[in-house]
Amino acid sequence: MRAHALILAAGESRRFGGGKVHALFRGKPLLSYVLDVVGAARQRGLIGGGHVVIGVGDDRAVDLADAAGLERIINDAPELGLSHSLRLGLAAVQASSADPGAALIFLADQPLVRIEVVEALITRWREGGRDIIRPCYAARAEAPGHPALLTRAVWQAARRLEGDKGFASLLGSSSFQTVTIDVPGDNPDIDTKADLLGLEESSR
User: Fold this and answer.
1) Distance (Å, rounded) from C-alpha 140 to C-alpha 68?
2) Which phi-psi region, left, alpha or beta, contains residue 194 (left: φ > 0; alpha: ψ -120 to 50)?
3) Counting beta carbons within 10 angstroms of the beta carbon of residue 175, is it exposed (0 to 12), middle (13 to 18) or buried (19 or more)?
4) Got the DSSP string for 2-63?
5) pLDDT for res 46
């Protein structure tokens, strides 16, 4: 079975001031970078398909998801936190005809995500990985990052999560076997406008 991409793009982005996934980085919306990597992963046969969880009323995200050929899931209660998007997304992935064996979770506010990291995660899973596989970027070795690969064994537990921190608690749970793989570079979240400005300046 193949893995399936799940992009979480429905956050309220309060710290950013709203509309974060459409903020421009190097002239492109943040969400577009993640969509491009997922598209490349599909072309290389690393994943079988993908879903995007989108906030209600976000027509621009709908258009981007449609243009990328990905299934969209509308989250009508983004105030319930990241875990609500995760639950909606995993339910849709499980119900899809692709019958994937794992979900590769992407965050829509990470424009430095790279296809090489996706390939490393999928390779590790196909070699007989653990329940959860995460990249550990050289720039922040103390904090494993995304995308995170969750096998089917984890999905049921993920449906019981709540709030924004529930996702992190699942990945750190002793109930599942977790492995990290070392990768070069960085893949930071963009939480504030200052984060985006800093990333723009450092990339010049």
Assistant:
1) 30
2) alpha
3) exposed
4) -EEEEEEE----TTTTS-GGGSEETTEEHHHHHHHHHHHHHHTTSEEEEEEEEETT-HHHHH
5) 96
Is 70 exceeded by the pLDDT of residue 168? no
- Of the two residues 11 and 38, the one the predictor is more confident about is 38
Architecture of the CATH domain 3-202: Alpha-Beta Complex (3.90)
Which tokens is 68 given? 């990328």
**pTM of the model as a whole:** 0.94
Total Cβ atoms within 10 A of residue 17? 10
pLDDT per position as a tens digit, 69-95 = 999 999 999 999 888 999 999 999 988
Write the CA distances from 84 to 74, 163, 196, integer angstroms: 11, 7, 25
Phi then psi for 130, rounded to 5 degrees? Answer: -90, -170
Please check whether residue 145 is in contact with residue 151, taking contact to mean a CB–CB distance below 8 angstroms. no
Torsion 174-154-87-185 (CA) sign: positive
Phi first, then psi, for residue 25 (nearest 5°) are -130, 120
Paired tokens of 53: 């969880």
Backbone phi and psi for residue 3, each to the nearest 5 degrees, phi listed first: -85, 165
Instruction: For residue range 57-72, list pLDDT tens digits in order.
Output: 999 999 999 999 999 9
